[in-house]
Amino acid sequence: LLTSTVPTISLLHQGGEEVHVEQFLKRFVAAAAFAGCAAGLGLAIRLGPRGVVELLLIAGSIGALLAVRSAWRAIEAAPMAHRIVAGGLLLLFVAGHVAEASTKTFPFVAWRMFGGRRAVSDPRYYRIEGVAPSGERYRIPPERVWPPLRDFRFTDSYQLIADRQSQLDGVHRDLLVALGRAYMRRNPGRRLARVEVFEDTVALAAHDRHARAKREFIYGVDLE
Amino acid sequence: MRLLHSDGTESGVGIVRLLVFGVWAVIFCLDPIQQLAELPVAALNPPGLYMFLPRAAVEFLFSEPVLWSLRVAGVGSCFAAALGVFSPWSIVAAAAAVCLVQSVERALGSINHSEIVFVLSAIVLAGFAGADWLTRRGGKRVGAGDGASLVLMTLAVVFVFSYQFVAIHRIVSSGLPGILNDSIVFYMVRHTGRDTFWVSGGGWYIYESETLRMVARWGFLGTTLVELTLPFGLLLRRGRWFYVAALTLFHVGTFLTMNTVFLQMILVVLLLDISRWAAPRAAVTPPVVFFDGICGLCAGFVECVFLWDQAGVLRFAPLQGETAALKLADVDRGSSRTGEPGSIVLEDEGALYRKSEAVLRIWSRLGGEFRIYAFAARIIPRAIRDAVYDLVAAHRYGVFGRRNGCYLPVAGERERFLP
Predict the structure, then answer these.
(1) What digits encode the pLDDT tens for the residues B26-35?
(2) ipTM value of the model?
(3) Which of A69, A113, A142 is facing B113, going by the closest CB pair?
(4) Phi and psi (nearest 5°) for B194?
(5) I need a surface site. Which of B85, B207, B282, B284 has the fewest CB within 10 A?
(6) Tens-digit pLDDT profile for residues A78-129
(7) SS3 letters for B120-188?
(8) Which helix (H) or strand (E) segment is B269 a member of?
(9) Cα angle A125, B199, A180; round to 5
């Protein structure tokens, strides 16, 4: 759009080279986009002592890589625009990691997989079931009803909603109704009257998964 | 000590671009994101820039037509970016589509890391493509030197640092006791019991056996150390194979014990020396592409091949020229309707290749992603490929036009064009 609408008027001369309005605008847009991302990340950063330690270790690691001569040669050989892009993206990548709020800084996020110390306790799972008018029950795995919510996105967030049931009763109900209706759309032969959620607690202390499943009813909604 | 990809080539970047956007194109094809319109909007909290949108805009965004449009745009732009068509616009559009779709998919809550490296890779590729556009004047990139090395290095650094950041955070926040207690066993058990497309039950077996629990604990420590030192994989050419093997083992383990597929594992290709194996193969005698000089299609194909062949591996000669008359004198001309040996013929290492085989061998000679295209196209039986080739060749003058004279190379091309 910029190249087609902005006339390439010769604005001034720098060392004999023409600098065009188009070129200025292109760079301005790129710089503004980067500054926007950096400002968003900057606002989200809450650097505690642990964050500082992590940042120092990361800086050390980057420094070690940059100490390799061939890395410098490659950087020197690259055009200036490429150097700016590489540096800017790495900066955003690191800033996203040390920022506290991954939701705000997406897609530059914190990398914290399996980082928390967890005591082994009895794990709990949600089991969602649809109840037909005849009383027949069908298991409803949410990730199969809505494949885009793979990788436990549904169950992780459902847990947050269920934990705050008193405040989020309307959301909770609407979500299960939507799930039940979507299940019926995917399985036209199965009509549901109700969706119910149970919580299964596995007794790990027994060291026997077959002895699991203390099942507790936690929520139910009528679809009709 | 040399840094991996410090001698990167454009072909290497092409391979990664094909891989990254090819994977996204397939994901968008298979992923019915329009189904998310069925979710109640109150339950959705899309991350990133979406957070700043008013609720009405989020509602509009999560309507089925918008999600369908996003999906179609994602598929189109990713395929175009993977194939290098309409660059850099397709690459920038594809990266934007990837970010938008990922934000939409993560709107219900959790953000996991299995796809984030792939998202960041798309952003990195778009960043460099955008930089080339910014600095382009009169069709030429401003700046000296080859930028491919830095593109590959940045991608590789993002890939290895994603692991290293995880390890650093784990060590700083939990310390050694946090790694050697049963934390990882808890995660395995918890993930095993969830509903997903693939349920191995591996986590249960780990928990029930004291020996396997010990293996898991020490394996977790080993994995953390591998992750922590992964940047060395960029430096040590032989040691890199250890890291590739360790990462593969780790991700097979998480697949079996946690039912989790880590998409970024596909990018382990960045730890391999793609800058070398993607480079065009040199020949003692340069292969010669004979083409129909008066055919609009053939001349257009040759122009494209000439541009793609940045290493100057190939030579070109019109079928109507002296070189063709000399080298193709014994070729059976009766098999062609036009009395010519074909629209494209390749002479490579003393052998002549015709029809689709000639085209695929030309791609192989170009190296990089073209070698992958050629490999993929060979899945189609030769008889079918040649039938399609014959159909196009038979109608080439009618559809693509006929030139009055032979294709004339411009200055700078002449040394690669034979008479």
Answers:
(1) 999 999 999 9
(2) 0.79
(3) A113
(4) -85, 155
(5) B284
(6) 888 888 899 999 988 998 888 766 677 888 888 887 776 666 677 778 888 9
(7) HHHHHHHHHHHHHHHCEECCEECCCCCCHHHHHHHHHHHHHHHHHHHHHHHHHHHHHHHHHCCHHHHHH
(8) none
(9) 55
Is a pLDDT exceeding 50 seen at residue A9?
Answer: no
Q: Are strands B288-291 and B315-318 parallel, antiparallel or unpaired?
A: parallel
Given A88, A174, A202, which is nearest B40 (Cβ)?
Answer: A174
H or E segment to which residue B351 belongs: strand B351-354
Q: Using one digit for the tens of pLDDT, what is the confidence trace for B158-167?
A: 999 999 999 9
Tell me if A202 and B193 make a contact (CB, 8 A cut-off): yes
Q: What angle do CA B366, B371, B376 make, to 5 degrees?
A: 145
Q: Band of the pLDDT at B98, cuts 50, 70, 90? A: very high
Note the pTM of the prediction, 2 decimals. Answer: 0.81
Query: Environment class of residue B175 by beta-carbon count within 10 Å: exposed (0-12), middle (13-18) or buried (19+)?
Result: exposed
Residue of A nearest to B127 (CA): A85
DSSP-assigned states of every residue in B180-215: HSTHHHHHHHHHHTS--S----HHHHHHH-HHHHHH
Instruction: Name, of A31-40, A172-181, B301-310, B351-360, the range with top average pLDDT.
Output: A172-181
Contact residues, A window 1-20, toward B, CB-based 8 Å cutoff: none
Q: Which residues in chain B are contacts of A73 at CB distance < 8 A?
A: 6
Q: What is the CA radius of gyration of chain A?
A: 27
Residue from A11, A23, A61 to probe the interface with B (highest B Cβ count within 10 Å): A61
Q: CA–CA separation, A138 vs A128, rounded Å?
A: 9
